[in-house]
Amino acid sequence: MRILVSSLSSKIALYQKIVEGVKRINPDAVVLAADCDYDCEGAKTLESKNFLVMKRLEEYSSQEICNFLSAHQISHLIPTRDGELSFWAKNRRDLKQKNIEVMVSKPNVIDLCEDKLEFYNRTKILEINSIQTESSPENISNKTFVVKERYGSGSTTIGINLKQNEAIEHAQKLKSPIFQPYIPGKEFSAETWIDRNGTSHGILLRWRTRVIDGESHESITFKNKDWEKNIKLLFESIPGLHGHCLAQVIVSSGGSLQLVEINPRLGGATPLALSAGLHSIDWFLLESMNQSHLIPETPNFREGVQLIKKNKIVSISASPTTPNNFH
Fold first, then answer.
1. 8 Å CB contact between 8 and 51
2. pTM of the model
3. Where do the H-state alpha helices sit in 3-142?
């Protein structure tokens, strides 16, 4: 068994937690990582034998990527970046024929999650209200706005808590701007693992207490049975989701939940979820080995597990006295 973690970049803590999950299933397995930047932070940390330099994905044809992975005897692939999901989703069947399993959702749902306007139109009637998303601020009865790129993540170009004239001005800097009402409140992520039948195996909640450029630098797990129930129904009501998925949710001052987005991939703070009992990597491998009966339907997640990222070092603590550090 040889697993490849793609788009490594600086996700060293995530890579190390993936290794832990893989080794629980197969102690003899090899976990490699790849990136198109041979000088990325991860490449400097990993042993050279565990790092592969790849071309940019758009430079590979379907046959070429199959040949590349087969040449390195890759059996499983785990994407970690929004921008690569569509590529792997479209090639997953060809890779499957080469006995290479990819942890990725179906192409149509990847496209849906990438398009914030279409995502709102398709999900606004589900268990949790999606935050209103429009192509013009005139359609939103709010005094302040959030302005984003319609497609992809683009957290560095976001405009937050802007008046209407400021929002319109900010939108001129973007390629395909969309507008949302600014809703003050606490923000949390809900992470899960979804099997090939569309069943969500538990919901792990974590508060996003400090966010930088869209990534949680401080986060702590918690439980809320009602929210977990509704978010599980939400995930299961979107056909085509598969593997590790996370939802970003805002709790308004009135206590209502507003769905911001769904990311069908591992996230920057996912090492916290993996440490707290959401064993997505283990379950992905078990499913690929036709051992789904070993995957718990309702996993027991640990509450109060905390992640802190500072100076590129990720620390995960189950209690104030038991930190685990990942560089």
1. yes
2. 0.92
3. 12-25, 41-45, 62-71, 82-97, 107-114, 116-123
